[in-house]
Each structure stands twice: as C-alpha cells, then as structure tokens.
User: Fold these one by one.
Assistant:
Number 1:
Amino acid sequence: MFQRKKILRQEFLSKRKTIPHNERDRISHELIKKFLATKIYREAKIIMAYASTPDELQLNELFAACFADKKILAIPFIFGKGIMKAVEVPNFEALELGEFNIPTVKHNQNFIAPEKIDCVIVPGAAFDLSGGRLGLGGGYYDRFLPLAVNAKKIALACDFQLVDTLPLEAHDFKIDAVLTPKNFFERVT
C-alpha cells in the first residue's frame, strides 16, 4: 500500500507541476472566487490555509479576502517531524520565507487551538469521492485534522486531482469537501 500511494503521489504531483504558471493562477483565482461564495467561507470566523509552494494553487487571494473580511487566518507552523500547529497570520507583512522556501510566521507567533478553527483548506496530491486524500507524504495533516473537530475540511483542487477512489490506510484522515473548477463535492457523513 505504501509503495502504491508513493507512485500515485508522484504521478499526481508530476502532472500538477506541468501546469503553466499563468494557467495555475487562472485556476487559483477561479477556485478562490467560488470558495468565497460558499456557506463554508461565509460562516467561518477562523480559517486555516496553507502557504502555497510555486507548484500548488496560489492562495494569496484567499489570504487577502480573509484580511479584508476580518476573519482570523492561520497557516501551519512545523514543530518537528510530523507535528504542526496553527499560527495566526495577521497580515501579509507577518509572512517571511521559512524552510523549503515556504512562507511562515516567525515573529510574534499567536497559536490557535485546533478545535477553534472553523475551516481548514487542506493540500494534497489527489482526492476521492469518499473524502479520501492522498497527502504529500509527511502525515502532518493526518495528525492535525482529527484535532480540528469543529472545522470543515475542504480541498481546492484541479479537476484531474478528483478521482473515484484512492488507496487509503486507517490513519488517512478523510476531508469533508473538494472544490474543483467543474465540481463541488461534499461528503455525506
């Protein structure tokens, strides 16, 4: 199972990497616009999102909307192998490049308890129709998401990243929804 997931992860990440930057920016803009119109976004007071790497969908527009709408925005802060916490991002100026050239908050850190988060934007290589998620291999979100008991867990993804089924193990945490340019899938729990 581990090897199968590793091969699938490489396939999806390779495909994601081939998307031209202008197309990635267009898809990012379209998805964020759709997400901002959802009940999930409108009702959330505290949103956790990830700081995008160059190959991922770009979430700066979502960050700007959270700041403008006076929502509390958090991003992951890595504490060691497999462990992350949610750190508040008060504004763009609080972000600086951290490890692996991923933006982070290094100064004046205000950590947010996972159970206080209303919505988590979850990254991943692929997602399936049962809420399954093929993560990036570190297990950070599989450990964190069960702690965010009150949060809607949603992925913003390209259409090719939403598939019928993925190989899942017992520790793989399922998400609640996937938003792609053509689909909005919500898992019935």
Number 2:
Amino acid sequence: MTSSSPLNHSIAELAANLRAGSVKSRDLAEAVIDAQETHESALSAYRDRNADYTRAQADAADSAFAARYELGVLQGLPVSAKDLYAVAGYETFAGSPFPLPMYAKEGPVVRAVRQQMAVIPGKTHTVEWAFGGIGMNPHHATPRNPWDMTDHRAPGGSSSGAGVSLWQGSAVAALGSDTAGSVRIPASWTGTVGVKTTFGRWSLDGIAPLSPSLDTAGVLTRSAEDAALVFASLDPHVADPWAFLAECQRAEARQFTLGVCEWMFEGNSPGVGEAVKQALDELAKAGARIVKVDVPNLIELHELFRRGGIAGIEFAAFINRPEMAKWKAAVDPIVSSRFSAIQAIPATEYIARMDQIAQMTAEALPVFDQVDAIVGPTIPITPPRIADLQSVEAYQAANLQSLRNTSVGNILEMSGVTVPAGLDQAGMPVGLQLLTPNGADERALAMAVAVERVLGTPRQRLGTPLL
C-alpha cells in the first residue's frame, strides 16, 4: 500500500473520516481498484474481482451515509473474502477448478459484513478445499508473499490471499477460516494480525467445509486494534464494537501472565524463536509476567495430527459423496496425497480419535489456571520457496511443520490471535501466538492490543514489504 493511499489509516480513523465526509467510500474503492490493477499480476491475491461491482457497492454505502444511515463500523470499508465464503456477485470455487452452486447463499458472517454495507472487492485465493497450510493452489494461482519479491515464497494457507490483500492495499480486513491454522499461518507469514475464533462462536453456514468438527471463521487485519474492532463488529455476542475497542485499549501488558510453551520453539528456522523471545523480553520489561508452562499431550497430539487427525477423515467423507465426484476427480495430487490413505480409516478409529481429543482437551484446560494465554511462535519455520515444494514429499514435510503450532489451538478447542513479533534471518515475518481458553476470544483480543502497544503495529514492528 502506498503512503498516499486514502486507505493508509486505521479502521477507526477511516470510519471517522467517512462519517465526517472528508473521504468517500468511492474514493476508497478507487484506491482498492488501483492497488489491484497495480499489484495483482505480481501478487495474485484474488481469484475473482470486479471493479464495477466494487464501485457500485461503494456508491451504495455513500448513499447510506448521505441519508444519515448508521449501519456499523465497516460501512463503506473494503473487506476481502476467502473463496470458501458464499458472496453474492462472486462464484465460490473453494480453490477447486469448478464453481460450487451449493455454496451460493451468503451465511451469517458475510451477512454481518453486508448489513454494515462494507465493500467486498473480490474473493481471495484459498488452498483447494482449505486442505493445507502452505498456500499453494495449482488450479488458480498461489499468491506471492509480498515480503520477498525476488523469490516466490509461500503466503501461508489456507487463507492464502487474505494477508496478501491487506499489504496490497485492496482491503482493510480479510475474511478467512481456520481449521488447523488457516487464518493464523497467513497472518504470521505476511506480518499481519489473525484471529481464530472459538469453535462454534461464528456460524459456518455459507462457508464451504473442510472439517465440521474443527472449522472456525476468522479475520485478518493490519493491526490488533483493527482486529478488535472488526471482531466486535461481526460477533453476535458483542453489543457495542466501540465500547469493546475502548476496553481493549485500556488493557496493559502488566495485567497478563503469559505461559511460554517450549515445545513450540523446537525445530524453529533461524531467527524465528529469537524474534519471539525478544518480543517476550520486551513484554516482560513492560510488566507482563512470563512463565514456562507444560502443556500435556503435545507430542501425542502432533502424532495424531500427522496421521490425519479428524479433519482429514471428515474431508474424505465430504469429498466422497456421490454429488462431489466431479470435484474429487479434479483434486490436485498434492492435496489428494494427504487423504488417499485417510479415507480408508474405519468409523471405530474416528470415534476413538474423537474420544482421545476430548481427553487431551480436558487435560490441557488446567494450564489456564496458571496463565492467561499460552504463547510461542505462531509458525516454527520461515515461509518456504514455492520452487522447493514441487515434490509431494517436500510439500508434505513443509506443510506439517507449518501447521505444527497452530493446530494445537484447533484440536484443543482454544481461541487465539497472532501478532507480528519481528523478522527472521531470512527477513520474513514471524508471529507471536496467543492461545486462550474456549470462549475467551475477548481476552485474546485485549491481550493482543496490549501486546501491540508494547511491540508496535505491524508496520511499526516490521516496516513494510517492498512492493
């Protein structure tokens, strides 16, 4: 995003400017379209976009402002949508080669965006069926991580275009989904903020599924304060988004005890663990209590995840439905290689895994009697080069590593946020993950805002990518 773009402000500032009339939604739309036309050929954030439709939505928002209709925080602001979400005006492919007519009706999350008359400028790329953490998609495109314009590095998946759209300057917030890290991975690798909501808190209607037992809707934003405001504007349990933001802004690092999970630092790429530890040192100096915690069963949990967990089994059941035959036949070999063996797992094994996860979840919960959040690197590795992942073996190894730390939050039913901690030795963004108990989404966001006040916004902490 250029420094002269009218979008180069926080969501709170943009909302105030729109209401004061110092900027129009149409002005923002033109900036979005310009950013897409300038950067899309290099970054490939979007599977589909429509300049005329973007302008029409913005004009409608401006008309509502002129009529003194107050529809919500996001009124007139551009919000990109992952290509799992049904959005009127755009087809849904879920990263597959064919449109999905059964996912044409908007669900509650998109309706909450629409009811505020936000502008949806396009559908961002996703990994096929959201089944992967790297961000690759051979059917449409693999977005480019904007932090390396020399080598094509992974943007993170499965919400692969979401974080890219934010740095591109074509959105101030991005709708994603998170089954094992699919919001937090692209947020971490692109240096943005990602919110994984508690399972079941936001409806999954109108979102193409991967794993009904683990899927969650979420958002990516350009700062923790933006994340708090967008979350509150979409969450059916928060009555006043502005009051919630103010509450988050009052939070201070010294109020929180952060439990460092050493397991999450194992096998880190050079500079990843160091960036997170530096951030934790700064938070300690600001008064946060930093302690070590032992989260039980992590080795067993990762082994279960490596064997497909329950997500792979549920996806295999979905893609093997008779009506999905056309889509199954077209599944990319890298994706299909991960579930070809999983689909043979019997129902008894699936039930046993569900029971095992329930037990592990119960055994992990007492950790939060000691700490407000479990913390560690969001992703242990630096974004790999796409050229290095062309074999199934190389892809599977990197994919498993990318999902290692984030999958903990999904399997153990936690909410969580990732915020930028710094850059690794390759000059790529590193995320600090904050995992909180089931239902503690508000606490996670308050902590994220307090952390951001110490570390700085993504732009302050990392600088900006050289687009």
